[in-house]
Amino acid sequence: MKNHPIFKTLNNEEYEKIKNFFKEKRYKKDEILVKEGEYSGKAFILKEGEVSVIKESIYKNDYIITDIKAGGEEFFGEVNLIDRGFVSSTIKAKTDILVFEIEHNDFIEIIDTYPTIGVKMLWIISYNLAKHLRKADRDIVTLYNAFVEVVEND
Questions:
Q1: Where are the domains of the chain?
Q2: Which helix (H) or strand (E) holds 78?
Q3: Tens-place pLDDT, residues 6-16
Q4: CATH topology of domain 5-152
Q5: CA distances from 100 to 43, 58, 79, 119 (A)
Q6: Is residue 104 within 8 Å of residue 41, measured between CB atoms?
């Protein structure tokens, strides 16, 4: 877990102080980690296995947006650490998985107890959220342009 990007700005001493806030948890294939439209305060580092990111259509059909495999920088649910809000996608175990899970309240405790560590972690989370937001902006432009093309060609 130490090599995960969320910890890349932490030295060994800082990492040791906060590592136990991340709880190791196993989920079986087809188990739901978080459900779209429900509240959650959890974020996850995917250590082993594969999960599916699922959205519900306006017709109440589920469709897979993407699959995420362990082995790299897989960290999801970080928005939940900030606002404990509605989950935007369902995360479902595609295989048996191992995650390191952190709850909003534990993250707040890190920030309160170790403010320097909290700031370093928040910087990484903010950086990742900015990357996601920029991608979403590009996707919106692409969708808008496709929509305009369809409307103009009808």
A1: 5-152
A2: helix 78-83
A3: 898 999 999 99
A4: Jelly Rolls (2.60.120)
A5: 8, 32, 16, 20
A6: yes
